[in-house]
Amino acid sequence: MHPTGLITALATPFDEAGALDLDAWRRLLQWQLSAGVEGVVVAGSTGEASMLEDVEYDALVREAVETVDGRVPVLAGTGLSGTARTIALTRRAAAAGADVALVVAPPYVRPTQAGLLAHYRAVAEQGGLPVMLYNVLKAVPVATCCRRPWPDWPRTSASSASRKRCPCRSASPRWSRCAPRASTC
């Protein structure tokens, strides 16, 4: 699977009491589908992933998978500060039916580039889902794109400063289809 096009990072709806609002979640997903999105991100940083309880996370992913019913890919945010916890959350996302794991560089830990590569490699090999790298430049820059071990790994970025063209994009047409305008070096 190679997600392309408009992929929306969705906010997570809560009711006035602070409980997860699954009816509003389903309406939001249906609205996104009717608007023509080509993928949805569940429980990314926009979706308050760090604040979700396990049962809320699982419900969001399951409901998204059920609601989109294969019409678009479901990307589940699974990046956490530790590799073992990221792998565990990626496995949970896979069990709930997600298509892709959206994995941010470990926040707060600030690994070396070698550590970052080891982290992503472990998640890709043990998580049970294809991995899309999520690059938050101000947190931990992912500078290994030109030396990445898997040339078809897509990557997205949360920074407007990421508009510069990565020299490796022209070397891999699959990369440029996966993450147009988002690759950085």
Top keywords for this entry?
185 residues, alpha/beta, TIM Barrel, six-stranded parallel beta sheet, 5 helices, 6 strands, 33% helix, globular
Backbone shape: globular
Put simply, the count of helices is 5
Largest sheet: number of strands, sense, barrel closure:
6 strands, parallel
CATH class type: Alpha Beta
> What is the CATH homology-level superfamily?
Aldolase class I
Q: Could you tell me the mean pLDDT?
A: 80
User: What sequence of helices (H) and strands (E) makes up the elements?
Assistant: EHEHEHEHEEH
The portion of residues forming beta strands comes to 5-15%
The secondary-structure class comes to alpha/beta
Q: For the largest sheet, list the strands in their spatial order.
A: 1-2-3-4-5-6
User: What gap, in angstroms, lies between the N and C termini?
Assistant: 24 Å
Note poorly predicted spans. Answer: 144-151, 159-185
Describe this structure in words.
With 185 residues, the protein is an alpha/beta fold. 33% of the residues lie in helices and 13% in strands. The chain has helices at residues 22-34, 54-68, 83-95, 113-126, 173-178; strands at 7-9, 39-42, 74-77, 100-104, 131-135, 155-157. Helix 2 (54-68) links the parallel strand 2 (39-42) and strand 3 (74-77). The radius of gyration is 16 Å and the shape is globular.
